[in-house]
Amino acid sequence: MHTRLNTRLCEMVGIRYPIVQTGMGWVAGARLTSATANAGGLGILASATMDFAQLKAAVADVKSRTPNPFGVNLRADSADVSDRVRLLIDQQVRVASFAQAPKEALISQLHDGGVLVIPSIGAKRHADKVLEWGVDAVLVQGGEGGGHTGSVPTTILLPQVVDAVAGRVPVIAAGGFFDGRGLVAALAYGAAGIAMGTRFLLTSDSAVPQSVKDFYLARSVTDTTVTKLVDGVPHRVLNTDLVNQLESSRGKLLALPRAAVNALRFAKLTHTPLRSMLTEGLAMRKSMGLSRAQMLMAANTPMLLKAALVDGKVESGVMASGQVVGVIADLPSCAELILRIMREADEVLTGLVS
User: Fold this and answer.
1) 46 pairs with which residues across the strands?
2) Model pLDDT, residue 298
3) For a 10 Å CB count at each end of the chain, is N or C smaller?
4) What does each C-alpha distance from 33 to 2, 28, 345 come to in angstroms?
């Protein structure tokens, strides 16, 4: 393997390859996370859709399947985040990732326990702030990415963030990556690795129902939509009848009542007290500048995702997806996927040099 493929990210985390599987809610469970880790990448367990007991069991499950480093994605504004941080420290989890950057006190607690902190950022201006707080790396996602995303494409945003970081910490690139050529391109921009969500969702190690995977595989690069009608903030999802309905005037009228019902269902499913959900919602509203309506819609999102990604109801759920869905045509194992990417990257680098 080309020496350039052993990056600063690999050395810092203790992984073989500079490839990260993102912490997708309802998708990145113990099986997918451990399969990625066993293949030499960094698997990240999604915990936002788990209560504390479920997270504790999932961490134990991952550790029983792999001796390799892995991460857990946390919500910095969750009511029990301190308990979750203590669990990561006690279980010697290597990485804590965050969709919203945690405050300095939380970062210090994780560092004192030997856990690396890697937040996701979506704009250049966020880089300096999280670096001041002492994070170990940043994951930057361009507008092509699935789920919550911005409007600036990866090819513009990534070099901006790399320049802003100026080598102080490794930068992980996300949004539009699926093969070895993309990995080499990210390295050329100055990144230390790539992160992928949709590509890992579409593997044989993903627990997403086969019917849902088939639905994804049939989509083109123009079959995604960025909508605010899922949870009040820009969210890239597959374009479906439900999403079209939400985007219509009738859908807007029905969105809040539906959100209220789903928020109650999510509270019951995850054994989360309504008081805790309210506390988290208010924290989200304050940190993200959400309106009351957006706060309620954010609480609605987990159930819409679960309906499709767990229950297989593509007609009544929401499916987060990057535009890269349109260039994916198979369901390899995580090991097959990562080795393929690394082989392609090695061939590209060798060709460039020669």
Assistant:
1) 73
2) 62
3) C
4) 26, 6, 23
